[in-house]
Queue: 4 jobs
Job 1
Amino acid sequence: MICTPARPYLAIFAARFLMMLQYRAAAVAGIVTQFWFGAIMVMALSVFYMGGRGSASITRAEAITYIWLGQAFLGLLPWNVDPEIVLLMRTGNVAYERLRPINTYFYWLVRAMAWRTAATLMRSIPLLIVTSVLFEYVGLGDWSLRPPPSLEALALFVLSMVAVVFLSSAITTLLNISVVWTISEQGINIFTNSLVIILSGMAIPLPLFPDWVHPVLLVQPLAGLVDIPYRIYFANFSGAKALGAIALQVFWTAALIVLGRLLMARTMRRVQIQGG
Amino acid sequence: MNGLRLYGCYAAASIKSQLQYPASFVLLSIGQFLSTIVEFIGIWALFGRFQDLGGWTLSQVALFYGTVNISFAFADMISRGFDVFGPIFVKTGEFDRLLLRPRSAPLQLLGHELRLTRMGRLLQGALVLGIAVGLLELSWGVREVALLLFAIAGGVAFFLGLVILQATLAFWTVESLEVANTLTYGGVAAAQYPIAIYSEWLWKFFTFVAPLACVAYFPIVGILGVDDPLGAPEWFLSASPLAGFVFLGVALLIWRLGERHYTSTGS
């Protein structure tokens, strides 16, 4: 048996991942909703592209691919606090977290990773298959998810998506820690929700924003959740530029993990348990 | 006490309880405002880049957008009782108590909660509508103002009907089905753009099955005074919001069927 420092974290990941796979009805509801929203955005964007007088740095087919990837991997976005952690805060069970012989920050980070990836896995596979393969067959080729132009792009995309999982979980863990102060998650959820939707590229692809905001949009941490991996997918970022973009994702992930650990240490020193 | 006055009492009690936490109310409303305005920022950015959407201008689209958001905000504000009907009323058996009271269940469910935080979306819709009205230089006569109010009222009836249908499902499924959100939130998302830009099956669905286009698209085309690319006759543009009320009526009839089918979960 392997006995490494990582072992308890792997076990935590596996346990939560398998538990999250039980929520199949929610996944079906999610898939239907995402098809709907994706279809509306694809239709509106098509009309913008066809009739519009302006030009964009990504083509219509690329923008449509961007939309479908966004709908497929929506579950990876760090748009809310882990409800189980909120319950820990409310009931005071957060005290038990201090008794475990593992690092609480990494424990929460791994929980977040399992939660996000399991929810996404169930939704993304049917969405990806239908929008890439089935759409071609039923004559909706214009609206379909296109394959990446090269194997290199695909490999870099996979690498970038791994970075997304870490980045998203680091943000989720920061949100979780902030609940220690606020006790209620409602306010945090509603504010992060808007920020994540607009700054990641979910609302509209970031390249379609006015050119003068592009430099700012690219370097902020939320671009690493949607914009960077998808532009790598259709080789809008390729070669050294793609590697630089992935390095940016890694930089933000590391910075947010350091920040999260500092906050966690400060919070846990002065945590007061609600009775009960 | 008649139904309307009773509803007034319910609403007053609900507002009073929410104002016990004024800071929370203000923050959640601001949050609602921000989370809905991001969608308009997206539309604004797309117009900045492409200039027009199949012949429609940004200020015209803003009029569609504002109207449907105001309608949905009002409906969302009053329909909380139906929204949580499955988990809060059917699953717990709480609905039995409602049936014992000498008032109709839909009235009591409407009175369950009046969600003030929906002010956020309402203000956002009103702001966008105001900008649209300012930019469009339309001549606002009695007909235009009346048609706008008619469209908003029809829209409230339509969305309320949708939420009631969603709640009716809970008589059979106990749980509330989130799939129905596709039609409420998804409907708002679709009707923010002029429905003529979509494929034929989609605008036909929104005209003849779930008549969202009748409470948003057609009356607004009537107000804008442009030629309807879908070719609807003039009288239809002004009369179409009636479809929202018909839809609500049908939803209430189906609700009554469900109510008759109801057996308590017994817990």
Job 2
Amino acid sequence: MRLQRRKRSAASCVCAIGLALSFLALLTAVGTGGANAATDLPLTAAIETHADSWAVLPMGQFGSLVNTFWQLLHAAPGSSDWVVVTPEGVADNGGLVAAAGLTTASTMVGFLPSQLLRYSPLSVTTDAGRTWSPAFIPGALAARPNGLASGPGDSLAIVGAAVLHRPSNSPTWSRLVTLATLRRFAPQCAAAALDAVAVTSTDAALVGAACRGRFGLFTASSGKWQLNGATLPGDWRGANTTILRLQAGDTEATALATATREGHQALFALSQAGSGTWQVSAPLSIAADSRVRATAVDFGGALSVLVGSKESESVAEITPSGTWVTLPAPPRGALGLAWVRPDMTSSAATSLDAFTVVDGTNLHVFTLPPGGGKWVAAQTLQVPLPYGSSS
Amino acid sequence: MPGMGRALQTGNPTIVSSFHSALLHQLLIILLVAAVCAIGFNVVRTLQWRRLKEHGHRSFPSPARATTPEPLARRVARIGFAGLWILDGLLQIQSGMPLGLTSGVVQPAAATSPSWVQHLVNSGVTIWSDHPVEAAAAAVWIQLGIGIWLLVAPRGRWSRLAGLASIGWGLVVWVFGEAFGAIFAPGLTWMFGAPGAVLFYCFGGLLVALPEHAFSSPRLGRIIVRTGGIFLLGMAVLQAWPGRGYWQGRNGNLSAMVQTMAQTSQPHVLSSWLGSFGAFVQSHGWGVNLFVVIALAGVGVLLLSGRRNLVLGGLVAFVVLSLADWVLVEDLGFLGGVGTDPNSMIPMALVLVIGYLAMVRLPVPLTVGEEATEETATAVRGAPDTGPGSAIEGATEGARGAATSGGWWDRVTLSYLLRSVAAVAALAIVLVGAAPMAMASVSRNADPILTEALDGTPNAVDTPAPPFTLTDQYGQAVSLSQLRGHVVALTFLDPVCTVDCPLIAQEFRQADQRLGEQSRHVDFVAVVANPIYRSMSFTNAFDQQEGLTQLPNWYYLTGSLSALQRVWDEYGVEVSTIANGAMVAHSDLAFVIDRQGHQRDAFITDPGPTPVFASSFSSLLVSQIDQLLNT
């Protein structure tokens, strides 16, 4: 009897210990969750027009979104100096999107929503950023480097799941096309998001969208939208794509697209002469621990990307033959790129500038002369930032 | 200027003064209740004496005989946890509590817990943050009240109710104040206080709430001791679990904890002990953890053995270990200005001591006819109303038997009456703290004291409000004189502002809603405070963003830059643009203008770092508008 009781007691003790250990193991498991890595599209971007070069890049305390103040830089052709021309009147710690007309002097900047501001004020300059006028768009601009576009007359903007259009002679925006419409016209694309817009030299609209199996590049013809983006090359067939940049030049349009499949990512440059089909470059593979940090597009179709990881950065440029060449490693910590043309009329090769930011407020510019060589320190700018003004 | 993110410091004089004032007022109420109780006691005693005299008695009923004294384990639990509750109540009087408890104690405790725990804890934090003075004062009186209640009610229903109150409040504190003692956090360890000090207070309350016959056999004690053993074995396993940061010395969890505690404001001798221990852990972290693992496992095994001598050895070892951890790791727990309790080691050790006593010191029934000692008599006097099965049932019956007629005056002893009145007074202390807190917590609006603490009290003025004529969001001209006959709440907002202006707009909207029917006599007016983005497109976009388009008495006015500049100047509003990505800086000001067009109050409207302040501001604005509407 006593033996039985002892056995029962020992069994219950073992059960209790087992239960306690299971509970502790559960607690341990609960406490060891992982966080998903954030992915984003780089807003740090540059555009070049016939008249000048513009660059958008972040400065300030990168660990604190509210104290990351985005700056708009301008360089006149023939000048080796960049000038900070950030429009005033709105906190730009949500990010900036710039759109410059290729042949007009008008440049438009959109402030991305930030904190409690949920729509995007615009600002327009016609004198290279010396003075700015406010402009209105109903809604919040998409956080995409080409979420806003200016043509010779018309402007386009991505707001939510729609592309808005503003004719040159009107202050009001109207809906041009929606994501749902694009899906209807091109079900094979299964468009997931609007990525980029561009206006051609004839004021025709180009729309880039996230797509599956193809590059989601759309144009309108007789009121109908058609997908004329190329298919993906063999190894990348079926991959998901996004349009990172979309820029219309004088005679051709340029796009930079990402393709993602099974955890692998690559960049593709696309070019379109006239209204023809898009030519696809060779892929530029991106390592798993790297991401595209900045992009720069030249109106002539030159395109460069800055890819960075925690340890290093690299810059690649697309060649006219559609292959990628790796340029000399940029200065450590580079976070922006921009093409600069020596003068307005010159068709001479452009130089590539890289930007680094030290201590949040010191902007350093390095130049890679045409033909390569090595990066040369070209300029230093001290940009006082209003920390705490929006926190 | 907007968006400067001003936050209230824990020692904010407005809040501290209001907290002390609340405590003083509640103390006066408690003294009043005590006086009423004393009068009640005397009235009942007088009535009893008259009845006794009517029935021919010459003295009050004498103390009855007890069959058993209060079990020693129960008495230790009751008095021990009463002392801890009283200590905690006194610690809650620290002036940093109203503003510092949530940010300094509660949120850090929940920071590493899963999001559902943080969500739950935040609901409590919101109530505390909305009403910091009422909440802090409530914590003082509830804890003091429970402690006193446990002390003055040794046996019977009042005593068991005190145990239940201890469990109830303990669970509230454990969940909302200690985030479940961080048991769901990845760094869970006995050394840092898991599973939370207040859980042991609940356990102590449970022991007091149990029927006394539960202490009549060693079973309860064995359960307590074995549960403790299993718990410590589990903690040893967790402590030994690789990859949890306790095996490495440098940059390990233990050295980080010790270093953090060493930075707490405290006597030099303590910080120097901690510093030395921290250095020792840094260089011998592996060895320290091995020792802790072995010690916890060893004590756990000894407690599980069930053998009296082994349990006693384990208990002594555990007390020594606990004291060492309490001093060298937990840093006594209550230092630093927002310490709310002495942390878990003392209550945990107390529970195990109680368990041991419940195992080995069983209550001995008094022999029939034996006179109760003072101790047992006191216990009996406290509980003549216990039901069948009570340890003192015989005593009650004895008292009944002694009575000549069956009236209450024959049975109620003086000391029972006194203890009952004292228990009622202790319950009143709990209620004096809990009632204002309960009333405040059902209000969705924060206390106006927060705004006053941040922005100062409204500046009472009585001057004609400078006139203006501007354009509203519909394109109509609106002048201040047009609004005569209504009370006007006027402020200045930037339609593309990212921080303050949307919050201030919500303060106005909340105030409008809270005024209800009265808002028909009030106009809420904002003037654009941005020299660049000032067109109607932007005022309309702002109204849409903030849900103001449906308010019939809302005007968002704009005009030419010169017209706006004139209004800004006349109302003393500074507006300036800042380069390189900042928003426009402008004064956060609001004015209340009476029906005759006179400025009556000028407010600073800085909405503070959290939405709590916006809610608080609307409370203040409503009260000022309400005054003008009713004069």
Job 3
Amino acid sequence: MNGFTLWFTGLPCSGKSTLAKRVEEILLERGMNVEVLDGDEVRKNLTKGLGYSKEDRDTNIRRIGWVCKLLSRNGAVAIAAAISPYAEIRNEVRASVDRFVEVYVKAELDSLVERDVKGMYKKAIAGEIKNFTGVDDPYEPPEKPEVLVDTDKETVEESTDKIIRTLEMLGYVPTVEGGNEYSPEEEEEIKTRLQDLGYI
Amino acid sequence: MVGLDGVPHSMITRFMATGVMPNLRDIAARGRITEMTVTLPEISSVSWSSFMTGKNPGVHGIFGFTDLHDGTYKQSFPSFRELRSETMWDRLGEEKMRSVVINQPATYPARPIHGVLVSGFVAVHLERSVFPAQYLRTLRDIDYQIDVDAEEVRNDPPALFRALGQLLDCRRRLLDALWDEEKWNLMEIVVTGTDRLHHFLFDAYEDESHPHHGDFLDYYRRVDELVGYVHGKFASLGYEKNFFVLSDHGFCRTKKEVFVNAVLSELGYLRFTKPGSKSLEDISENAVAFALDPGRIYIHRRGRYPRGSVSESEVEKLKTELTSVFEAMTDGDQPVIRRVFDGNEVYSGPQASRAPDLLLVSEHGYDLKGRVAADTAFGERRLQGMHTWDDAFFVTLRTDLMPDKDEFNLLDVPPQILRSLDVQPGNPSEPKSC
């Protein structure tokens, strides 16, 4: 089985981890080997000790990218969910991984401040946290992501479906039941209908 | 947008002129009605997939109601999941616009869109025909039906007309329910009863002395009422100019059925391992071509099919030979095939390698079939009407968006609908390979 890297990028609280988790579940159901490298988790081990300066952020992303490369070249699906704010480093990772799919998880800052599940935006706006992406640190959106999901407008289900369909279209993920979504009973019913209307 | 499945331009203009469809006549009078061809082959699943994506089958990957599972001769029935291109609803979703889509053929099982999708033919279970699932209750509450029971009504005209009326009623109930419940930018409703009626009773349209000619016209009066109703509701919102009506293919009376595989067998192009076989699964390695419905001819290529024997260097010669065979085919002194298209001529895109090598377009009346079991080239018609590649129609009030040309195709329509909403066709998140 050929591996690939699915890279979620977007502002804090935009929905990267939620979507990564949901995509992971679907790919596991389809018999693929999947590892999720979630930004928050990674900072507790692989990149422990790194801060939020540009240099440290770049190092963080390079390390995640390196692990993704190893995983995907060995047939696994590596899913990275990290803010990864700088285009240059994302592109560096893209260049180092053979099969790289970038998902831009887009959401407007206003709605992220409203969501603020971790209470971080409030603190950043109040100046209690420094170097917070989207508030006092820049975020450079991807120019040509393979998938763009808008979590302000789409449900988790809609966004997930868009990602899975793109992976299917790229041929990275097998379609359900070898390409056919019908049960044997549905297939029989469809065949009868087509015969009744003279189509087959 | 109102879709009228399988309604020919020649019929609709006649009904507009004779007062059967006054609402559509008034709408078209303020805009434009045009005849158009559709994508090939001229069947609903292909046409509607082309409509919803704005792409030819070489991109969206739906070439018929049936196909073969990759690397086998086993028949498959492509589902909505196998559509390989994004839809106009996806495109609108990217611009944060919502679509409500009612009874759209070729969208089963329903998948998420930015809005509401209720699948049409070949939808089987209501539970898998609606997104989001919360509207399943609505569908049940309004006694929504997907289609007529063709087996039950095909030989019982009064039952057919009753069922067709009920279908129109439940589509309208759903439209009413979703119109106010949902915030939407595109509302789409497709009437498919027209196609069913034509298959079973097209003779009742042409023959004024037919016992059900009046019923046929009455049904169209009801279709016109629905068109007028939708347009009236829309106009009351103040946007009436962005109103479109179209069909996905034309229709005509069937004279005879034509069995393409029987022609190929008779001339030695198609052979089977078992005499009298009824399945392509018994195709011989000596076979060089076979057909799938309606007139899709595939060269039995080495490498593409398990028992394929034709090398790439032989393909073009064989295509030329088969083109000559079908162009010369007659029924008495009547030509049968109007045109033979090369697959390369009509399909382009990442899925084109799965496309048929040749496409037959018949003269009106000769209904092409890919059935393997037939022994003779011609057979008696089983149904009264058949699809046509030409004679589809399109009505628009946005004449400013019509391309400046004389001949129109179904693929000219979706960009106009998107532009009417100030959305440019094309999708930044579509994979580069598409």
Job 4
Amino acid sequence: MIYLTRKAEFSASHYYHNPEFSPEDNQRIFGKCNNPNGHGHNYTLEVTVKGDVNPKSGFVVDLKQLKDVMSREVLDAFDHRFLNKEVPEFSTKIPTTENIAIAIWERLTPKLKQAQLHRVRVYETPDLFVDFYGEDVYGEA
Amino acid sequence: MKVHLSRRYMFSASHRLHSDEMSVEENREIYGKCNNPYGHGHNYTIEVTVSGAVDQQTGMVCNLVDLDAFVRNHIVERYDHQNLNLLPDFAKLVPTTENLCIAIYDIVNRGFHQAHLEKIRIEETMMNSFEYAGEESR
């Protein structure tokens, strides 16, 4: 088993708001992230896949294919977008970094053929990142 | 859905690696320039990783404001601009970054309950880092 990680970057805006909360609760819980006009980040995405090295190609995954899947499924949808308004997952879920990592996992995992998705890591800033391993909270994936 | 969230914090501190249980020569032999009696300093980066279910209402594992406040009050204020050797934590322990990792893990694990602590990772310099994830690795 070997692990391979590919990085990509995208820039997007978002804000945190739950319509079920009162305006005061939204402000208290989400603070300045609650500004409805949104604010932006340069996100760094790290996608780690795992698998066996193909004895003929020496690859765990076709890098070109992985790059294409990441571009098509994630970057084309997220880059230079207002996540709350332009990405369907976030019409019902708050685009926190946690939910962004889960959404990216769910977009990528059915599209990867050779290698298995191991981890999605999303950096919101260099000092804050989220890892999702596809785990249900009650057990392993 | 279980998600891991990591946040980095920084503080600067000095230390000297020296054990009273060893001779002067042994200390010098084992710790090298880190045994310099005047101590030396580092800019430490602490990476705190917590995990848990994503709260359906907030979309969060835990509120970063709470994590930031805890780490600021209990870790950064405790260690920033201090000589680690003079702190009670290291009265009987050599303040290696291994031991600092364990000390910080224990403080966060005891006091922060809004999410499960997965691990503490400390970068002492750009070239070396240490991780502690609790009992099993002890």
